UniProtKB/TrEMBL annotation:
It comes from Macrolepiota fuliginosa MF-IS2. Residues 443-581 form the Glucose-methanol-choline oxidoreductase C-terminal domain. The keyword Protease does not apply. This is pyranose dehydrogenase (acceptor). GO terms for molecular function: flavin adenine dinucleotide binding; pyranose dehydrogenase (acceptor) activity. Its main location: secreted. InterPro entries: FAD/NAD-bd_sf, GMC_OxRdtase, GMC_OxRdtase_N, GMC_OxRtase_C. Residues 1-20 form the signal peptide.
């Protein structure tokens, strides 16, 4: 049963004294200040919501972020230094790993999540893809809210602002982009041999097949074909929710850094009952909003931490929580369930194309001088490919339903990384490897985020449940076949010489069994997780939030982040999360007009 709770939620905070840096502000400093809105998590979505609410000068908004300011993290500013901030185990990472994946040979991977202002928009790969029209229309139909449909979202999506870089002409369609949005979006213009060869190969292949159409702009709602990547970069700088939103707020928006919210509770709750391990560097305090000043609490901790905070607070599957000794506040079996992330894996092709190396010292000096050069763009290649399989394709021959959201949606992304030297993989034909990722965009398998103990200090179990459903593997297998068809173009005959990972046998053949073996050892999460606090329609018997982003069975509590998206989009997630956060901001503002 869902217990209706009225009134203002209060917060229990953990101060991590280890983070005590110049920006550290004690919550004590906030005593006496009455906030209208408290946003937990200054990440991608939290940064948008706090900024939009703060546009009303009458509102006082507090953002509580567990990590430091992005300003302190130099590599977060420089697009080409992305690998330096996304590697696991840095001081701006939550250091999560997945549970052993039983369908991927027990594989365990890092599940990187940024721990700094801007969240993952301060460290991600910067690829800007909106997904397909069908993705948004499916969210609208699952939630019963037509406001989530593609047509209703386009005006919001146009917040993205591609810079009119003269070198990018022909790399995107200006009519699909805004001119005054917050986030800088640019089309890369680096000249690199594989990019030019790809254009030639597409022309050649389109004579005989419709598998790889040329695509001028992949952000028009039908991302099927081969085209140019767009990135959240402007003027050689990463553009994030911290730089594009939070940096431009008035002084009615306060940001409390290095402060982690452990759980939320009604003010009357007896919060001394939950035990915390002792630790000299750690102390817990209660931080309560004024009963008369507070309007709402908004949780934006992201796809892992938002369900974790709810579960810690007793909002979740009653039986599971009570088994851990956590008092149930609101019984909701959907919290943390339905976790969806795209399975991806690296493949490599033998090539004699020049290695994509550069002199880091010189490149850094150039960037510091003028924000130009190799580090002014992300390091991945400028080509991106999206393949939609016909309904008669191999993955669907056993009757498996098409998992994509509709006919405008691709099944596979081809994400070209770089040409690099991999020791031990030199071949007679070429000594370098063209590295790429194959991404299954619409996994059917669903995983979960669950608590392992009653301590809010412990990381939750992150189970992507990758490849649990056979069609997920079959789609990746067909994706690798698709790559073989792409690189069989005559255009590549003197430069790209076939797969080295997975590797063909001595006869040059690569059996389905060998490819499946490669897949079931190498699949990793693409770090695009959604759906752990899914939105469902009003009155649904599942889901965590309603179409107003309100947590079922509560008042005064909403969730705004990637966790509310019920299905993963046909692409990378940041553009849809920007869109949903803008949508939520409008909904919240309207309700307090
Ligand atoms: C390595 C990597 C590469 C990626 N590359 C791309 C890409 O190229 N293109 C793309 O479109 N998408 C990419 N993504 C995905 C995209 O960045 C995310 O989908 C998006 O940032 C999700 O936004 P969010 O607001 O839900 O969560 P986040 O951006 O993760 O923000 C959550 C914030 O909440 C804070 N927080 C969490 N718990 C607490 C707590 N208890 N108390 C206080 N604060 C808390 C966190 O520190 C964080 O700042 C990538 C993701 C990763 C990890
Ligand atoms: C980025 O990482 C590379 C490789 O580890 C290292 O050589 C370089 O010094 C780092 N740069 C910065 C600015 O941290
Ligand atoms: C992740 O590991 C790094 C390096 O040990 C550390 O600085 C950081 O605090 C860790 N993150 C968390 C959330 O514990
Ligand atoms: C959709 O948005 C409009 C305008 O913002 C609003 O009037 C309407 O109530 C919304 N519909 C739903 C189902 O939320
Ligand atoms: C355009 O490309 C040329 C040649 O690669 C380069 O020198 C120039 O800096 C680029 N212009 C911009 C605005 O990036
Ligand atoms: C966007 O790019 C312009 C110049 O190209 C730059 O001045 C501005 O700071 C950038 N904005 C963000 C949010 O990165
Ligand atoms: C998972 O999502 C589906 C809809 O996609 C829903 O029917 C089901 O009830 C959800 N499961 C849980 C545990 O919320
Ligand atoms: C190329 O990609 C690989 C794998 O991601 C990485 O290890 C390597 O550093 C990259 N090289 C360059 C020059 O970007
Ligand atoms: C890299 O660039 C620096 C600075 O320009 C230079 O001193 C160094 O010799 C270069 N290294 C190589 C290997 O070319
Ligand atoms: C591969 O070639 C070898 C040697 O010619 C032959 O013995 C073997 O049967 C071939 N394997 C396949 C699968 O064709």
């Amino acid at each position: 049963m869902l217990l209706a709770r009225r009134g203002i939620y209060s917060l229990l905070l953990l101060l991590q004294v280890a983070f005590c840096a110049v920006q550290f502000q004690s919550p004590d400093d906030l005593q006496g200040v009455e906030y209208d809105f408290i946003v937990v998590g200054g990440g991608l979505a939290g940064g948008v919501v706090a900024t939009r609410l703060g546009e009303n000068q009458g509102f006082k908004v507090l953002v509580i972020e567990a990590g430091p300011s992005n300003d302190d993290i130099f590599a977060s500013q420089v697009p080409g230094l992305e690998p330096n901030v996304t590697m696991t185990g840095t001081r701006v990472d939550w250091n999560y790993t997945t549970t052993p994946q039983i369908h991927v040979n027990g594989r365990v991977d890092p599940y990187t999540r940024a721990l700094m202002l801007g969240g993952c928009s301060s460290h991600n790969g910067m690829v800007y893809t909106r997904g397909s029209r069908d993705d948004y229309d499916r969210w609208a139909s699952v939630t019963g809210d037509d406001n989530l449909s593609w047509d209703k979202n386009v005006p919001i999506v146009l917040q993205g602002q591609p810079l009119p870089n003269p070198n990018a002409t022909g790399h995107y369609d200006p009519s699909l982009h805004g001119t005054h949005g917050n986030v800088n979006v640019s089309a890369p213009y680096h000249v690199h041999p594989p990019n030019d060869l790809m254009v030639e190969a597409i022309k050649e292949l389109s004579q005989s097949s419709d598998e790889f159409p040329a695509l001028l702009d992949m952000n028009g709602g039908r991302p099927i074909g081969m085209g140019w990547d767009q990135d959240t970069v402007g003027g050689g700088l990463r553009s994030s929710s911290a730089t594009a939103y939070l940096a431009h707020t008035g002084d009615n928006v306060h940001i409390l850094l290095n402060t982690r919210v452990m759980r939320i509770m009604p003010p009357t709750d007896d919060h001394t009952s939950n035990e915390h391990p002792d630790g000299t560097d750690i102390r817990s305090i209660e931080f309560a909003t004024s009963p008369t000043g507070g309007k709402e609490l908004i949780i934006s901790g992201g796809v892992i931490n938002t369900p974790q905070i709810l579960l810690n607070s007793g909002i979740g599957p009653k039986g599971e929580l009570e088994a851990l000794g956590i008092k149930s506040l609101i019984d909701n079996p959907s919290v943390g369930k339905n976790f969806s992330d795209q399975p991806t894996l690296f493949i490599g092709l033998s090539t004699n194309l020049p290695v994509d190396g550069f002199n880091m010292t010189a490149a850094l000096a150039e960037w510091l001088g003028s924000h130009t050069g190799r580090l002014a763009d992300p390091l991945h290649m400028a080509s991106l490919g999206w393949v939609r399989f016909p309904t008669t394709a191999n993955p669907f021959k056993d009757g498996s339903p098409d998992p994509a959201a509709g006919p405008n949606s691709p099944h596979i992304e081809l994400y070209f990384k770089n040409v690099t030297l991999i020791p031990g993989q030199e071949t007679e034909m070429g000594d370098a490897t063209l590295l790429m990722n194959i991404v299954n965009l619409h996994p059917v398998s669903r995983g979960s985020i669950t608590l392992t103990t009653s301590s809010p200090f412990d990381a939750p179990a992150i189970d992507t449940n990758a490849l649990a459903v056979p069609v997920d593997t079959a789609i990746i297998l067909e994706g690798i076949r698709s790559v073989q068809r792409l690189f069989s173009a005559q255009t590549f005959s003197s430069s790209v010489f076939g797969l080295v990972a997975p590797k063909a046998d001595v006869n040059g053949t690569l059996s389905d069994e060998a490819v499946i073996d490669y897949i079931t050892h190498n699949v990793m999460p693409d770090l695009h997780g959604v759906a752990t606090c899914s939105m469902a329609h009003h009155g649904a018997d599942w889901g965590v939030v309603n179409p107003e982003f309100k947590v079922r069975g509560t008042t005064g509590l909403r969730i705004v982040d990637a966790s509310v998206l019920p299905f993963i989009p046909s692409g990378h997630t940041q553009a849809p999360v920007y869109a949903i956060a803008e949508r939520a901001s409008e909904v919240i503002k309207l309700s307090w007009k």
